[in-house]
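This entry is set out below.
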Amino acid sequence: MSLDQSLRRGSRLIRARNVMKRAERIAKLTDEDRWDESKSVLGIPKTKVPKTVVGRKKVKKVKEEDDDKKGKKKK
């Protein structure tokens, strides 16, 4: 039985996965030149899962603007 759309958590897909699918592992090994097409897909070597950072906001350069305003004040 499926879960109603209104009962699902909004942050469900934001969580980091700690397991890569077989196709993702083969793609990563291919990029690293560690995969040969003649090898069997069973017994694939382990690969590290990239850590993703979610929710961080970029810090704006406010300090430089504050310094400019202080220097332009009338005395």
User: Anything to note?
Assistant: The chain has a mean pLDDT of 75. Residues 17-75 form one domain. The chain has two helices and no strands.
